């Protein structure tokens, strides 16, 4: 288990902070009009005492305003790149090598998650690879700053980040952690599994049984990812030993229904896709729920796949097709590499 205690900054960190100083400023969000709403929710819904609310005020006074985190959220690579540009970020030889080493080291935990939850070990590993390079990079931003800046100031998603800020204070209170000490992504996601605070509270599990649900602990992250995939969105809960995608080849006259392309849930069946002129290269029943995945290439062409239930389970983790496809293809590469390793 990794400690949450922050080490004294070294020279590199001090230099980084100095360079960021012009864009980071204490905001004293305790005076923001919505701060009163936040404290009311904490008092009414989570029984925060007067002393607890005073600690929240103190944290909000220490929060730094970091507008560039809003820009990073709005320009995330899965929103701006083509599939040609996005895929190599995650599906590459270095990630496969790291992933195989990770799966070898944590094999017993991955196999236990498979037994208890049904989630394929390679998929759990691939999610950790895409999210944090298998736990090696969990984010440098103070979660307090990320959620305060975006919860109070995001132009289009402030309500979402405000609700996560509420959940963050509740999480810190429950786990007796200092809000200023928690580090994560530009969006406020935490740990090797990169859970937002609400999902941390609801879906993280103490998989190693040490009494601390700690997503910086890789065993806890492994179990929590598996738990997430079966519980977060019940209509596409992970199905044991089922595929994620199937090759789809448009034939002459194929017309993809616009409301079936790159959706967050499967909207068709394989039978309907076949009737519309798609060749599905898989021995799957026509009644199998599916959707069309359309991946834009730099050439202007598109790559097509049929997304199946487990693909949409991964999309519940991050609702971007490129993200889920990267997890899918990295998982396939890891499975193949481990099989080759075992054969040798």
Can you characterise this structure?
With 344 residues, this protein is of the alpha+beta class. Among the domains are: 23-65 and 139-189, Orthogonal Bundle (Helicase, Ruva Protein, domain 3), CATH 1.10.8; 245-307, no CATH class. Helix content is 52%, strand content 10%. The chain has helices at 11-20, 33-46, 50-62, 67-74, 77-80, 83-90, 93-105, 107-117, 121-132, 143-153, 158-175, 197-203, 218-231, 270-275, 309-315, 321-343, and strands at 25-26, 64-65, 141-142, 183-184, 245-250, 268-269, 278-280, 289-296, 302-307. The strands form 3 sheets. The chain has a 5-stranded antiparallel beta sheet with strand order 6-8-9-5-7. It has a two-stranded antiparallel ribbon with strand order 1-2. A hairpin with a 5-residue loop joins strand 8 (289-296) and strand 9 (302-307). Helix 7 packs across helix 16 (321-343) and helix 8 (107-117) packs parallel to helix 13 (218-231). The protein is globular. The two termini are 33 Å apart. 42% of the residues are buried.
Write the layout of secondary structure elements.
Elements lengths: L10 H10 L4 E2 L6 H14 L3 H13 L1 E2 L1 H8 L2 H4 L2 H8 L2 H13 L1 H11 L3 H12 L8 E2 H11 L4 H18 L7 E2 L12 H7 L14 H14 L13 E6 L17 E2 H6 L2 E3 L8 E8 L5 E6 L1 H7 L5 H23 L1
Helix share of residues?
40-55%
Side by side, the strands of the main sheet go 6-8-9-5-7
Radius of gyration: 22 Å
Kindly state the number of beta strands.
9
General shape: globular
Number of helices: 16
Going by CATH, the architecture of one domain would be Orthogonal Bundle
Q: What is the overall pLDDT average?
A: 91
Order of secondary-structure elements: HEHHEHHHHHHEHHEHHEEHEEEHH
The description of the largest β-sheet is:
5 strands, antiparallel
**What is the CA-CA span between the terminal residues?**
33 Å
CATH class of one domain: Mainly Alpha
- What would CATH call the homologous superfamily of one domain? Bacterial muramidase
Poorly predicted ranges (pLDDT <50, ≥5 residues)? 1-23
Oligomer: single chain
Instruction: Quote the beta fraction.
Output: 5-15%
CATH topology of one domain, by name, is Helicase, Ruva Protein, domain 3
């Amino acid at each position: 288990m990794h400690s949450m205690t922050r080490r004294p900054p070294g020279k590199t960190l001090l230099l980084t902070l100095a360079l960021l100083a012009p864009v980071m400023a204490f905001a004293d969000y305790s005076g923001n009009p919505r701060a009163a709403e936040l404290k009311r929710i904490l008092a009414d819904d989570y029984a925060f005492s007067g002393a607890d609310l005073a600690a929240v005020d103190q944290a909000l006074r220490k929060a730094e305003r970091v507008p560039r985190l809003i820009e990073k959220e709005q320009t995330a690579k899965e929103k701006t790149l083509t599939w040609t540009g996005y895929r190599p970020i995650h599906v590459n030889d270095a990630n496969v090598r790291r992933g195989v080493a990770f799966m070898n080291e944590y094999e017993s935990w991955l196999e236990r998650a498979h037994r208890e939850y049904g989630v394929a070990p390679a998929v759990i590993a691939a999610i950790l690879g895409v999210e944090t390079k298998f736990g090696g990079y969990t984010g440098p931003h103070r979660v307090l700053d990320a959620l305060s800046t975006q919860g109070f100031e995001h132009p289009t998603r402030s309500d979402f980040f405000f609700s996560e800020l509420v959940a963050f204070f509740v999480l810190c209170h429950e786990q007796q952690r200092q809000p200023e000490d928690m580090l994560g992504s530009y969006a406020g996601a935490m740990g090797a599994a990169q859970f937002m605070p609400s999902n941390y509270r609801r879906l993280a599990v103490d998989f190693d049984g040490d009494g601390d649900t700690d997503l910086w602990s890789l065993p806890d992250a492994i179990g929590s990812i598996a738990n997430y995939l079966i519980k977060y969105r019940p209509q596409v809960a992970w199905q044991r030993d089922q595929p994620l995608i199937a090759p789809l080849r448009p034939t002459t006259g194929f017309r993809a229904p616009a409301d079936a392309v790159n959706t967050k849930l499967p909207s068709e069946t394989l039978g309907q896709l076949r009737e519309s002129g798609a060749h599905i290269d898989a021995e799957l029943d026509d009644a199998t729920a599916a959707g069309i995945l359309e991946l834009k290439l730099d050439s202007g062409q598109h790559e097509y796949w049929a997304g199946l239930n487990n693909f949409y389970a991964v999309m519940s983790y991050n609702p971007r097709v490129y993200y889920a496809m990267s997890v899918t293809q990295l998982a396939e590469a890891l499975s193949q590499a481990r099989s080759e390793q075992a054969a040798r």
